[in-house]
Write a structure and sequence with these properties.
Layout lengths: L1 H28 L4 E7 L1 E17 L2 E4 L5 E6 L6 E2 L4 E5 L2 H36 L5 H33 L2 E3 L4 E3 L9 E2 L6 E4 L4 E8 L11 E5 L5 E10 L9 E8 L11 E17 L4 E3 L2 E10 L2 E8 L1 E6 L2 E6 L6 E3 L12 E4 L1
Parallel strand pairs: 1-22
Antiparallel strand pairs: 1-21, 2-11, 2-15, 3-10, 4-6, 4-9, 5-8, 6-7, 8-10, 11-14, 12-13, 12-15, 13-14, 15-20, 16-17, 17-18, 19-20
Helix pairs in contact: 2-3
Length: 359
Amino acid sequence: MRLRTTEIVLIFFLLALAGCGRDKVEGAQAPPAMQVKVQTATLQRVGDYTDYIATLRGRHASVVKPEVEGQVTRIFAHPGQQVSPGDALLEIDPRKQEASVHSQQAGTRAQQAALEYAAQELQRKKNLFAAGVVSKQELDQAQTSYDSAKAQLDAMQADVRQQQVQLHYYTIKALEAGTVGDIPVRVGDRVTNATVLTTLDTGGDLEAYISVPSEKSGQVKVGMPIDLLDDNDKPMARTAATFVSPRVDPETQLLLLKANVPNADRRFRNEQVVHARVIFHEQERPTIPVTAISRLAGQTFAFIANNEGGKTVARQRAVKLGDVIGNDYVVLDGIQAGDKVIVSGVQMLADGVPVTPGS
């Protein structure tokens, strides 16, 4: 009886020990899933590009300069005013020109009287010549006097018309509808043909003027994409090169590119300076956040959340990276668009570890 009791106790001990071992094995086989953030890899346009400075200029903006010299006597418009074609902007003292026109008009009237007298004299000579009283020479002299007086009158009338046209230049008017810019001159200032009176911006599209180094001349072409960037280097608008200069500036060794800039929302201004990204070559590549990358022994890796047998596990992939765009890496190899990339806790992951995806 004592031996049998000992055997029974030993059997119970072995069964308990086996149960504890089984619990430990089951616990090792089913570790808790790790909470991670997952982001889908998306395609983004990337390529070979260089950033330059671009100046935006209005295709329908003009600099207003006078056609004549003199003192500014009146300023009709003010900066920022909307004007219509023919609206007066400024006036240059016209009194001297008006006096000149009046003087020439008086001379024209005197010449008109002289022409009328020459016409009467010619008619008398014709009548006398017909009656045989005067010679042919006297008739020819009368005809010459009349022709000369008429030619002088025509010339004087042409001068008057020219001076009257010149008089119109003393009132500077808007040729198109638009917005008046700054007016740097004041009443009393003396201006010349080179003086800038104001600017007139009619709105509409702008042109971007971009200068690239001459060594890039073989890579630029009409139609190549150009992005206009904001202060954070984010594209504000995309356009394309519409003009490539056939020659390099001999002094600066820069090549001029032009591109149309749509401006219906008036986001840009005439003479505004912006950053322009000239894209020489472009293709679509997947991008992933920088937080998704882990490094080991000089190699770069990322983890993909894979659904395997109803469970989600982390699978490690070696990746080849390109440039950094903002907070994302461009992936050259190892990741495809649509892959579920783990972007948190990657330093604590291992291949095959169960994970619970989140956002």
